[in-house]
Write a structure and sequence with these properties.
Elements (H helix, E strand, L loop, with lengths): L12 H5 L9 H14 L9 E6 L1 H12 L4 E7 L9 H8 L6 H6 L12 E7 L7 H13 L5 E5 L6
Parallel strand pairs: 1-2, 2-3, 3-4
């Protein structure tokens, strides 16, 4: 099954605009609702063993799901994730506007202040030379997890430019 949560592009402007200025607030609840509806008539689904994975913005959604729906998602694998507006400003402004014009939305989109909500097992995989999702964002998120007494698994991919 594939689910396009509200905010997904190419489904019509009204469908996509739900996430504008409010990125990260609707997508995970949409997926949780879909899982609940699927499980309602599929007794073989074990809802105590739900996992999620993704890379880049999918990595963001993975981390976000682990932090905002910890009662549903027990394990996550996030590859080259972004965690907040400042990690990827050129792309995030497409969804959020600028921090000056949307300060509350830009603060809410951050995963840093949610670190204490982690309950499941999270693996972060990130390369040190990623230009699209800077590794510095992962260091900030790891610092937030450590400050909250939450620990994650980390695989660091050391990349060097080709000569």
């Amino acid at each position: 099954m594939i689910l396009d949560g509200r905010g997904t592009p190419e489904r019509g402007k009204a469908f996509q605009d739900v996430a504008y200025g409010d990125f990260g607030e609707h997508e995970i609840p949409d997926h949780v609702t879909a899982l609940q509806q699927l499980a309602a008539d599929r007794p073989y689904m074990d809802r105590t063993r739900v996992g999620i994975f993704g890379g880049s913005f999918g990595g963001y959604m993975t981390v976000r799901a682990m932090l905002t729906a910890s009662d549903v998602y027990r394990v996550g694998v996030a590859m080259a994730p972004v965690y907040e507006m400042n990690d990827l400003p050129a792309y995030m402004e497409l969804y959020m506007n600028t921090p000056e014009n949307n300060p509350n939305g830009c603060e809410a989109v951050s995963c840093l202040h949610l670190a204490s909500k982690l309950e499941g097992k999270l693996l972060i995989i990130h390369g040190t030379s990623d230009v699209n999702a800077p590794f510095a964002g992962t260091i900030k998120m790891l610092s937030a997890f450590i400050a909250a007494g939450k620990y994650v698994d980390l695989i660091v991919l050391f990349q060097s430019p080709c000569i």
